[in-house]
Amino acid sequence: MNEFMHLIGANDVRAAGNAISSAAGQIQSAAGQFDSSVQDLKRFMDDWLQRFEYLLNEQQKNQNNKEDESDE
User: Fold this and answer.
1) Could you give the CA distance from residue 1 to residue 56 in angstroms, rounded to a whole number?
2) Is 10 strand, coil or helix?
3) What is the rounded CA–CA span in Å between residue 69 and residue 72?
4) What is the pLDDT of residue 9?
5) Which parts of the chain have pLDDT scores under 70?
6) Phi, psi of 50 (to 5 degrees)
7) How many helices (H) and strands (E) does the chain have?
8) What is the pLDDT of residue 4?
9) In 3-state terms, the chain is what percent helix, strand and coil (to 5)?
10) Model-level pTM?
């Protein structure tokens, strides 16, 4: 009796499994790149907000100084 049996469509199933595995690798790579981009954007926005807050504080100081000068 033959010890091995050839299943109809086994090669197709194997090819589909390989394609799925490859796609999963590409998805994982894309997720890593997306995460990196989000981290870069977060750093940019944090820096931008710090500069914006600094400018608002400086503007407020200038406004207070002008008000103090006009009161004198």
Assistant:
1) 86
2) helix
3) 5
4) 87
5) 1-2, 4-6, 72
6) -65, -45
7) 1, 0
8) 67
9) 85, 0, 15
10) 0.61
